[in-house]
Each structure stands twice: as structure tokens, then as C-alpha cells.
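Re: that chain you flagged

S.,

Sorry for the slow reply, it's been a week of failed gels. I finally had a moment to sit down with the sequence you sent. For the record, here it is as I used it:
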Amino acid sequence: MLNRFAKLRHPVAIDPEKFSDRKRRMYQFLTENPIGVLSTVTPDGNPHGVVIYFVTGKDFVISFLTKTGTRKYDNLVHNGRVSLTVFESTTQAVVQVIGRAKEVTDSKTVSDIAGSVLGVTQGSGQPGPSPLSKLEVGQYTAFDITPDQVRMAVYARPDSGGYAELFESVESFELKDEQTDF
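Prediction finished late last night. Pasting the C-alpha cells below so you have them in one place:
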């Protein structure tokens, strides 16, 4: 389902099979672990974190839903700079996406995102409806996060090492460069 979503939203995006090994590992991790902590900044400069369900497009654009009456929405409208942190306990792996979130205004695209997020919500094994559906504030809307950087660390690696050796990183220019290699 996630790859179908990526094709619908980003028809000219590069095929993940053409990614470098490092980039493919990060992409696969994000598509297999669609729950993370989205960190935003309040208008008075304080951090704010919330758990979200998300989907990942072939170009690493992360899409998620929220409602217009939430603190998350207000923060995103005020300041689109975000960080998304995704953790998987079995491998002790973490991916952090740093980028800019922008509200999606096209109703068909919002509907596509909603259907895809509903699919990952139902496929997550969590009982009942998503937490967002339980909030009675505002209308549903969607945001896309365009990453400036994607970093991955796997703490379960057998060899210990320095801090720098732990992380794999893809910077924004690397994300854009590979997209033009058709």
C-alpha cells in the first residue's frame, strides 16, 4: 500500500530500487515503521512533540494528517520547521528526518493521504481507531514534510564505535541529486 501511495502522489520520483544502499535502508525503515514523534515549535519558542502515523513517498516526502484545532496545527502554521523521530526496538534503530512541513491544500491529495494513513493505522496492529480520530477539534488536513536531512543510527550493531561512525546521513542535496538520475 505504501508504494502505491508513493506512485499516486509522486509519479516522477525516482524508484527506490535505484537508491544507494544507505538511502534504500532509510527508505525501507520509514515505510516499515510508520509511527513516529513529530517535534514542532510553539509560537513562544517551546518544543512540542506528538506521536503521528505517516506515509513515506518515493522522494522521502513524509505525509501525515492532523486537525485544524490542534496545537500541532497551530505550531506548523506558525513555523514549518520540524523533526520526525522514528524508533524500532528490535534492531534499536532510529531515523530522524529534519525538514519543513507545508500544508496540503488540494482536497484530492488530502483524501489520498487520509486513505494511505488510515491504511497504515489499521495495519499497525493497534486496537481501535487512530488517536487523531478521537479529537473533536477542527477539520482534517494534511501536511507534507520535505526533508533537508535524513539520519539513521542502528544501535544494535555488534561493534561499538565513536559517535560519528554510528550515524548514516543523507543531506538535502543528496536527496535532490539522486532524483535527477533517471
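What I noticed first: The helical segments are 2-9, 21-32, 71-78, 107-123, 163-166, 172-179.

Talk soon,
D.
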